Amino acid sequence: MRSAFKQLFFFVSILLLITCKGQSSDTLRSNPLQVIYIYNDKGTSKAGIQDCKRVLSELYQKVYRVKEINALQTISGEWRKDAAAFIMPGGADLPYCKKLNGEGNAQIKAYVESGGTYIGFCAGAYYGSRYCEFHKGDARGYEVLGERELSFFPGSAVGPVLAPYDYKSKSGARIAQIKWKQSDVPIDQIYNVYFNGGCYFKDADQYTNVRVLATYNNEGFKGFAAIVECQIGQGKALLCGVHPECSFDNLEGNDQNLSAEDQNHLRTHIAPYLADHSHKVLFSFLMNRINK
Asked: What is the pLDDT of residue 24?
């Protein structure tokens, strides 16, 4: 009974969020800031891009248009004219650096400073921080350490948090238990969200331009900043160490080459928790920050 009630609550929450957002859709359609751009170039995860497009289509089809954008288009800056947000999805952030360092990042920063919104999921969150600390000291050669040009979060994005990451399998996939910290949510609720290789934001509460939106509630990591909002000039950067855009049905559909071991891991340890769709509610909380 309790499980059924939780699912009902989450579905109602999603409907309310969509309804509230839909009420402003006419205004948004008349506003030049109406397109959500998703970066798609070397380093980006195909699955991450598909997940973003699916959930945006499901929840915000009447509110935003969605377009993919590559490195050369980002560098051109033309997209800034009608952008509601710029999403940097999951993947690997070193190729982002190679393609965008210099003029590309300058365009993104100028867009945010003038009132735009940058949204970074997982690798996009590492990339949007001043310092990326990924698998420090890892014996497999997975270590990635270094400063990043965007530097929206003025500290370090440190990970992986909940489990080691493996480029060749889904062994590092976990369910992050996320607690939203802002008063716009009336009850103390835990949101089950897909995690694989993500970060936390070190000392996030020490920076004057940073608001901690959500924290991890997993044992050993309770209170670690999982989602932050950074005020940058007139705009903001929303950095998310987890994947609220990811649903279980997309996990299997996005990768036809999953091993039997990976399939079993996802179905046993991931699917039962994503079935309550609470991650979609968290995604909506995040998206609703765009116009605040």
From this structure: 41
Q: Name all domains of the chain by residue range, CATH numbers in brackets.
A: 23-287 (3.40.50.880)
The CA–CA distances, whole Å, from 58 to 37, 52, 153 equal: 16, 10, 30
* pLDDT 10s digits, 148-203: 999 999 999 999 999 999 999 999 999 999 999 987 765 678 999 999 999 999 99
Q: Which of 201, 61, 207, 223 is CA-nearest to residue 120?
A: 201
223 backbone φψ class: left, alpha, beta (φ>0; ψ -120 to 50): left
Distances from the Cα of 220 to the Cαs of 58, 199, 216, 217, 279, in angstroms? 34, 14, 9, 8, 21
pLDDT number for residue 23 = 41
The token pair that represents 138 in the structure block: 């890892």
Residue 19, CB-side half-sphere exposure with 13 Å CA sphere: 6
List, in sequence order, every residue forming a beta bridge with 176; answer none if it has no partner: 193
Decide: residue 252, CB within 10 A, 0-12 exposed, 13-18 middle, 19+ buried.
middle
